[in-house]
Amino acid sequence: MWQFFKNKYLTRFWEPIPSILFIGLLSAYYFGITGSAWAVTGEFTRWGGEILELFGINTKEWEYFKIIGLEGNIFTRKDGVMIIGMFLGALIASLFANNFKIRFPQNKTRILQALIGGAIAGFGARLGMGCNLASFFTGIPQFSLHAWFFTIMSVIGVYVGTKIIKMPFLQSHATLQKGSFEVKKPKNYEKIFFILGVIVFIFSLIYIITLMKNDSFNPLSTLGIATLFGLIFGFVIARAQICFTSAFRDLFLTGRGKIAKAIVVGMLISTLGVFAFIILGIPPKIIWAGPNVIIGGFLFGLGIVIAGGCECGWMYRAMEGQMHYVLVGIGNLIGSVILAYTWPFYSKILATNFPKINLLESFGNYGGLLINYLLLLLFLALIFIIEKNVKNKILKEIA
């Protein structure tokens, strides 16, 4: 019984489609229980600001940090502990599956792609006040019109990115070897890594319980709950190898739209759950629907393809020891801090002078829900069309 459970749920990769649907449901509950959005780039930007604070730069006075907040620290903010939980969850999944191994980029081009692509994605995400998570499983389910602009433009950015990465100067010249994608280690490593995973898991639970216990006002501390949700998010995306970059990149490159379609269905599930919590009185997070999300969405989509990973993708791959994705994360920090510094030069022109449009307020509760569902169904239909056209094009080229 134990070996069956271990092999099926702890060491083998999970089917991505049910995992994505589960994440859609989980993100709705995260919003309902904590009142926060499942998003990561805003907190990464705060990390960048806090790093600059260590060097004597007063980032608390920057206009952008006054908007997103720079109070407390990583251990006292819900977003901070949620991301800690995500990293821990991804690390546990990696150790359980014996999939941890330090791996470095094979050439300088890949290093530049990671840093430059990561910086473009980080800049674009914060210009558009979000990322793939904040758009797919937060902004759209919370009925913020800006998320639709961001999503459409990020998909266009991914399409352009697929054209750029096909250019000869970005092609890898590494020699392929049989079994090069396997993480090979001596047999005893499997047991050692699994035990390490158990230790990290127990440590994580103790940390979560401590956070809950230390809240004298509420026995179920939101910090502890946020960490727990992050732990589950991180474990699921790592076990199912969920990467939103590859989902839409593969749609344009090979016509494989299976994961992209699952993401939309996950958004349908999340939308209904979030709607129920909004009706109960939990306020959604609505962002300016201005040119900032159009430009930012495009840059984000372009950047994640060049870098080779979105926020989810680079986080769990970094926890597998892939240093390329550590560099993507560093690039994200650099790009987001550049955006925060330059924000005053274009904030009014691109963002803050534009309205925050809530579909529920504009069309009524059920009217807004209907419009959101119709847009999601149109999005799903578009994926089917792109999938069919790309496959037909590939078949013609082969013929």
- Would you list the SSEs in sequence order as H and E? HHHHHHHHHHHHHHHHHH
How many angstroms separate the termini?
50 Å
Helix content estimate: over 70%
What is the number of E strands?
A: 0
Q: Provide the β-strand percentage band.
A: under 5%
The main sheet comes to: none
What is Rg?
A: 21 Å
Structural class: mainly alpha
**What is the number of helices?**
18
- Which regions contain 5 or more consecutive residues with pLDDT less than 50? 174-183
What kind of oligomer do you see? Answer: single chain
Mean pLDDT over all positions: 89
General form: globular
Structure description:
- With 399 residues, the chain is an all-alpha fold.
- It contains 18 helices and no strands.
- The radius of gyration is 21 Å and the shape is globular.
- The relative contact order is 0.20.
Task: Considering the chains and any ligands shown, give keywords for the structure.
71% helix, globular, 399 residues, mainly alpha, single chain
Q: What's the topology here?
A:
Elements: H1 2-11, H2 16-34, H3 41-54, H4 63-68, H5 78-96, H6 108-127, H7 132-139, H8 145-164, H9 187-213, H10 222-240, H11 244-254, H12 258-279, H13 291-307, H14 311-318, H15 323-342, H16 347-352, H17 359-363, H18 365-398
Provide a compact summary of the structure:
With 399 residues, the protein is mostly helical. Helices cover 71% and strands 0% of the residues.
